[in-house]
Amino acid sequence: MITKLRRKFISITAAALFAMILLVLAAVNGTFFFQTNRQLDGRLDSMLSELLKQHADGLPLSNGNREQEEPPPNLRDIPQNGLPHFKNRLRIHADGCVIFLDKDGNILEIRQDAAQNYSRVELSSVAAALLKKNRTRGWHQYFKYYITSCSDANGESKTVIGLINASFDLNALFTMLLISAVIGLVSFLLVLFIIILASGHAIRPIADSYTRQKQFVTDAGHELKTPLTVISADSELARMIYGDSEWFDSIDRQVERMNSLVRSLITLAKMDEEEKPAFSLFDLSDAVYDTAKSFEGLLHSRGKLITLDIADNIRYCGDEAKLRQVVSILMDNAVKYCDEQGKVTVRLFQERQIRLQVINDFSDTEGCEPDKVFERFYRADKARTPDGGYGLGLSIAKSIVELHRGQIRTKTLDHGRIMFEVVLAPA
């Protein structure tokens, strides 16, 4: 129990820490990207306005066809997927150009800034790709682009594409992302290590309280055995002297109930010690059949039917005695809560997992609370007589199933029936 509590504490704290770091990284990088994108839009709009003004004034600029000693790589050779290659453009902070197209998409003029780094061939390729996107603003490879239109002196409409090289900014963005991710991961691992070291100290008060409580239950259970034994012996002696009496029968019944309660409390306390029992391979089919079959006479005496649907030769590695106890608890619960003239069905089968199902008729399904039936001292029928038990049986069954790394659950079925199901991993 303490180990589970510590693991849960670590997992919840680690999840909260990871979410917080992820949120901080997203906020920092998102803000950085937003600011960079806005600055690029501003620079692009400024460059586009300046070159458009020069175009309107008729100032001569290069058309992008001049020969270069070392022509830049064609944009078509740059991979479309993955991170773009920045090394060929990082020497330029923000070179850009404006491309003028006619209504058919043919290039009329190219105006570049002072850098003049792009050939007509590669700009034609970029322009063709941008026209296919049908978007006025965005990213293309390492370019930030903006598409607008203008009219010449003759009133003919032209498509204008403004481009600005953003490789320097993109490189800064990816560098920022990488550095922040590494710092975030290192910080997470470092704090997680501290949490693991401190978790033992954090849950120590709870562990001490739980240990004292468990020890008290065990000690009180053993201490109660002595007076119960004395009461039982005195009742037998008084019966021998004064003869049988309903009062002596009542004393014996209450002593037996108290003994049963003490045994259940001690069993639960031992279950919580997390001492793994010695598991061995056994025939689960025979164990379930023998245990369920022993309740047949009791059910028939109360006018109830039992149906056994148990698959043969299902082998399982576990504690046979404890799993027999689970079957006995579920059968005892079915006997107590089965309707008059009702039926109890026991099924055992294996698909991907081993499933044990105990189904009984139970007309008061609306009063059943499936999420609470495994709580200690829970009673589904609070008006039932005290002979119904203390509500510890299903808690013990749940502890045994969890000890075997299994699951136990309950749910109401159609036609006024309730089912308890145990799911175990195959051997």
Could you explain how this protein is built, in words?
The chain has 427 residues and is of the alpha+beta class. It folds into three domains: 1-66 and 84-199, no CATH class; 204-271, Helix Hairpins (Orthogonal Bundle), CATH 1.10.287; 280-424, Heat Shock Protein 90 (2-Layer Sandwich). It is built from nine helices and twelve strands. The protein has helices at residues 2-57, 120-133, 167-202, 204-242, 246-271, 284-293, 296-301, 320-337, 393-403, and strands at 96-101, 107-112, 137-140, 143-151, 157-165, 280-283, 305-310, 315-318, 343-350, 354-361, 407-413, 417-424. The strands form three sheets. The protein has a five-stranded antiparallel sheet with strand order 2-1-5-4-3, sandwiched between helices. The longest helix is centred in the first third of the chain and has 56 residues, at 2-57. It is elongated. It starts with a helix and ends with a strand.
